[in-house]
Amino acid sequence: MERPRRLRTTPQLRRLVRETTLEPRNLILPLFVHPAPAPEPIASMPGQYRHSLESLVEIAGQAREAGLGGVILFGVLPEEAKDDQGSGAYAEDGIVQEATRRLKAAYPDLLVVADTCLCEYTRHGHCGVLQGDTVDNDATLELLAQTAVSQAKAGADIVAPSAMMDGQVAAIRKALDAAGYPHVPILSYAVKYASAFYGPFREAADSAPAFGDRASYQMDPAAGYWDAVREATLDDLEGADLLMVKPALPYLDLVRELKARFAKPIAAYHVSGEYAMIKAAALNGWIDERRVVLEALTGLRRAGAQVILTYYALEAARWVREG
Ligand code: PBG
């Protein structure tokens, strides 16, 4: 008789046949940084902060100690520092540029990824510049390219465009190459949905659109495989080095699909709402946080994610180490 239970009989047998691994190097920690003297807790994401430059260096040091794959930076600006062009995103002395310089000075061997988007820097909160009530795709490309170049110049090891403008990867690749950064890889948010799971992030980054929503540029969750494959194919052809799916768990099928189709590392973003749900249940004592988090992240690895962006990166690295 076929008895699958046979291989589950002892811890030694289970260990022997286990294929999926989760290691700290697979994890990237998202960090928020603001131009203020002190860190500020984020209400909808217990345990996460809008960091000051000082506290950012401190937590990035922990990420390095923990052996994480790296960190990804998001800037947060006070309302009065925003404008309609999102110029804070590509300012030489912008908050992410300054943060990147500080991190690379403190830890040259820490991998620093810069999120490349305008929504944290525009007064209207959209991911590009407006033409009337709609986001002007082609005018935005130039600003995204400028943002990526300024991030590379500040020392970012990877740039990660998340604005969902058509042609953004090609525009950024071309600009990086022309500016002397042909070696800086692009981690593309290739398959990014218009998702309700970004709610806590938008509170954290104060980046909710002032009117309307992002449905005319981010993807429709119900569109289907064709849209995901089309987006990923374009970013692949435009020269993305890694392809990301976002959010993660509701779109696990697409992680699998991309893994099978593309000869590039696949990333998945376990987003703010996914973090907040687990955290809220854990704080209520309804679930075993450690086991739930490790199970979720292991599931992403099993589906094919080489890289996982998660607010749980530090805890997960510790739990993995503890065994
Ligand atoms: C910027 C961006 C967002 C997230 C990552 N980059 C917000 C959005 O698209 O509205 C969300 C990440 C998260 O929810 O953790 N465009």
Automatic annotation (TrEMBL):
It catalyses: 2 5-aminolevulinate = porphobilinogen + 2 H2O + H(+). One of its GO terms (biological process) is protoporphyrinogen IX biosynthetic process. The lineage of its organism: Bacteria, Thermotogati, Deinococcota, Deinococci, Thermales. Keywords: Heme biosynthesis, Lyase, Magnesium, Metal-binding, Porphyrin biosynthesis, Zinc. CDD domains: ALAD_PBGS. One of its GO terms (cellular component) is cytosol. The active site is at K192 (schiff-base intermediate with substrate), K246 (schiff-base intermediate with substrate). This is Delta-aminolevulinic acid dehydratase. Belongs to the ALAD family. Mg(2+) binds at E231. It comes from Marinithermus hydrothermalis (strain DSM 14884 / JCM 11576 / T1). Zn(2+) binds at C117, C119, C127. 5-aminolevulinate 1 binds at R202, R214. Homooctamer. The keyword Ribonucleoprotein does not apply. GO terms for molecular function: porphobilinogen synthase activity; zinc ion binding. Pathway: Porphyrin-containing compound metabolism; protoporphyrin-IX biosynthesis; coproporphyrinogen-III from 5-aminolevulinate: step 1/4. The keyword Lyase applies.
